[in-house]
Design a protein that fits this description.
Quinone Oxidoreductase, Chain A, domain 1; 24% helix; binds NADP nicotinamide-adenine-dinucleotide phosphate
Length: 316
């Protein structure tokens, strides 16, 4: 059996269950692609999967950790069209269909798109989940409208300096919206540089004092932040959350909409994001680049809930 280096877990638990070890190299079916991974992106959900909080029926132990990656196509199944050996791609496998903290990953063609040409593999690996979530929150998800943010509107983006937030801010500015963004004191300068129009230090200020009658709120925090956000929306406005809607009642009472999204595979959106990156519209801020064998540390850091931009793992 061909082997590869991978970060796996044999039981669900904290970051300490992650092991850098040899694992069987996956092989692609006729409708799949084998990718040689050069970098893997780190997301909060990686920890949820490792802890057993986010599970799919097809999941087996041991499991390779992680989802997002960028790499080179190594082998193409007979039925696959549109990809060739050597293509540089980025994306993520579906839940329960293999992890990306490894030298190789098998994916369906609908899980990937061509990597942005202007980015190295590390920066490209930072994009998939966070950028898909940002796009699907602000615009549409699989053809179904979500916030439908458009030119001239105003959006309040919570957690604007994090993975989803940084891409959401840049997408909202690209579409021509005014952005109110929240972050900690040490992130305010970063938020201004990212393009946030009105920067709110949530540790010192109340976002309600800056956001009034907004068209949309992107909530990546939940709890009290979500509960206080309903009152800043105008009638007919939309709150989209990446962490679930605690109660539909406040939305109903105020004539606003509440939408919880679950970022889904969308190669069309990945291709669109790659174009925007290559045009210089979207930048990819990395806070940390670690070697694959330090995946445990990377997951400990993302668990803090205060990552600026993205963390990635280099895979050799
Ligand atoms: N449903 C989905 O499909 C989906 C997809 C992606 C992510 N998510 C979820 O969405 C959440 C965010 O993901 P992410 O990748 O952006 O995480 P992340 O990179 O860890 O960023 C989280 C951000 O939240 C900010 N934050 C923490 N407490 C805050 C508060 N009280 N008010 C305002 N901002 C606050 C932090 O900024 P400061 O350092 O400035 O506090 C940090 O930048 C996670 O729970 C993740 O699991 C869901």
């Amino acid at each position: 059996m061909d082997m590869m280096k991978a970060v796996q877990f044999h039981e669900y638990g904290g970051p300490e269950v992650l092991r850098f070890e040899d694992a069987p190299r996956p092989s692609p079916a006729n409708d799949e692609i084998l990718v040689r991974v050069h970098a893997a992106g780190v997301n909060p959900v990686d920890g949820g999967i490792r802890a057993g909080r986010v599970r799919s029926l097809s999941q087996r132990l041991p499991q390779v950790a992680g989802l997002d990656f960028a790499g080179t196509v190594e082998q193409v199944g007979k039925k696959v069209r549109g990809f060739r050996v050597g293509d540089a791609v980025y994306g993520r496998p579906q839940f329960g269909h293999g992890g990306a903290y490894a030298q190789y990953v098998v994916v369906k063609p609908t899980d990937v798109a061509k990597k942005p040409r202007s980015l190295d593999f590390a920066h490209a690996a930072a994009l998939p989940t966070a950028a898909l979530a940002a796009w699907q929150a602000l615009f549409e998800s699989d053809g179904t409208p979500t916030m439908r943010l458009s030119r001239g509107q105003t959006v309040l983006i919570h957690g604007a300096s994090g993975g989803v937030g940084t891409f959401a801010v840049q997408l909202a500015k690209w579409i021509g919206a005014t952005v109110i963004g929240t972050g900690r004191t040490e992130n305010l300068q970063f938020l201004k540089e990212l393009g946030v129009d009105v920067v709110v230090d949530y540790t010192q200020q109340r976002f309600e004092d800056f956001a009034h009658q907004v068209d949309g709120v992107l909530d990546v925090v939940g709890g009290e932040t979500q509960a206080r956000s309903w009152d800043v929306l105008k009638k007919g406005g939309v709150l989209v959350s990446t962490v679930g809607i605690q109660s539909e009642e406040p939305a109903k009472a105020r004539g606003v909409r509440a939408i919880a999204i679950m970022a889904g595979q969308d190669p069309r959106v990945l291709a669109e994001i790659a174009k925007l990156v290559d045009k210089g519209v979207i930048k990819v801020p990395l806070s940390e680049e670690l070697p694959l064998e330090r995946a445990r540390e990377a997951q400990e850091h993302i668990q803090s809930g205060h990552t600026r931009g993205k963390i990635v793992l280099d895979v050799h």
